[in-house]
Design a protein that fits this description.
single chain, alpha/beta, Rossmann fold, Heat Shock Protein 90, 7-stranded mixed β-sheet, 5-stranded antiparallel β-sheet, 8 helices
């Protein structure tokens, strides 16, 4: 299933735009050679650097850089497991380091081999693609994404390449012909609900019924007590949006898959903004907070939306089983 995208956001002034590079490497030596070259380019140009890499790679870089004040190390795990929170996190980190319009470079490596399940892996890749849309006008920002392809299926590297306009090789970045620029993002097809699943058709006036249904199913599935209230808020927001913008009715499904509880909302609406829920709402903003809250409260949120097939939103919550 694919979703129709908005036209690409125009670049910044004088054709400048966000530079987003994929850096395939193998082993610690190649990791260091590529990332350190990127960092020293930044330092030579008076730029700040934000580094978010796994802890073992953080140690390697700290040993090489010492206490370089222009380099800041951040921990992406503080944003939680949901990749839907990372665009806002990166925007905050880069803005803080770019005070006074100072150019900033980011180095972001996801621990791909620690992906919790195929759905999580798919959303991590989608996040990488969305960075191009989120920061298209940020002409003073750039990002390098190291990717350890040792032992990886060639298709995994190809899937990552489709998310990056540039590839770094031999200390230089080159245009990536495989980048998905003006075409639909190729979402993975949502897996079918696991049996047994429960289904409920809803319409206006059914919010209380929806909350009660999801809360009971989530409790039975083993969602921790302290997270049931968070799930109830997310469900209320998504169900309200579904009824309001999806034709006044929809279908709810709930099921358990492994150690995850899922609830799915389907309706006839269409979400045209691919960044919906990914950017922090502004003060005084009217509407547009439902998907943001869902991303903050749930462990994963999957969204598929097209004009002809409507919208599906899946909320994932970890269980204690």
């Amino acid at each position: 299933m694919t979703t129709t995208l908005l036209p690409p956001t125009p670049p910044g002034p004088e054709g400048a735009s966000f530079r987003h590079e994929l850096y395939p490497y193998r082993g610690d030596e190649e990791f260091l050679s590529g990332t350190l070259a990127f960092i020293h380019e930044a330092l030579d140009g008076g730029e700040a650097v934000v580094v978010a890499v796994p802890s073992d790679k953080t140690s390697l870089l700290r040993d090489e850089l010492g206490g370089e004040a222009a380099v800041t190390f951040v921990d992406t795990t503080t944003a939680g497991p949901n990749p839907g929170r990372l665009v806002a996190a990166w925007a905050s980190w880069m803005k803080e380091r770019g005070e006074g319009n100072r150019p900033v470079r980011g180095i972001g490596e996801t621990a791909w081999r620690q992906a919790r399940n195929p759905a999580h892996l798919g959303e991590l890749r989608y996040h990488e693609w969305l960075l191009n849309r989120a920061f298209a006008r940020s002409s003073t920002w750039s990002m390098l994404c190291p990717y350890d392809d040792a032992g990886q299926d060639p298709e995994a590297l190809a899937a990552m390449s489709r998310c990056h306009p540039l590839i770094r090789q031999g200390g230089q970045h080159t245009t990536n012909d495989g980048y998905l620029a003006d075409v639909d993002y190729p979402f993975e097809v949502l897996a079918a609900p696991c049996d047994p699943f429960q289904e409920l058709s809803y319409t206006r006036g059914d919010l209380a019924t929806i909350r009660a249904k999801v809360s009971q199913c989530a409790s039975d599935a083993g969602v921790p007590e302290d997270r049931l209230a968070q799930l109830a808020v997310a469900v209320t927001e998504i169900a309200t949006n579904s009824i309001r913008h999806g034709g006044g009715h929809g279908t709810l499904r709930t099921w358990t898959q492994g150690a995850t509880f899922l609830c799915e909302f389907r309706d006839d609406g269409h979400i045209s903004d691919v960044m919906a829920g990914r950017t922090r709402p502004t003060e005084g903003q009217i509407g547009g907070r439902g998907l943001w809250l869902a991303h903050q409260l749930c462990d994963l949120v999957e969204i598929r939306s097209t004009h002809d097939q409507g919208t599906t939103v899946r909320l994932h919550m970890d269980t204690d089983r």
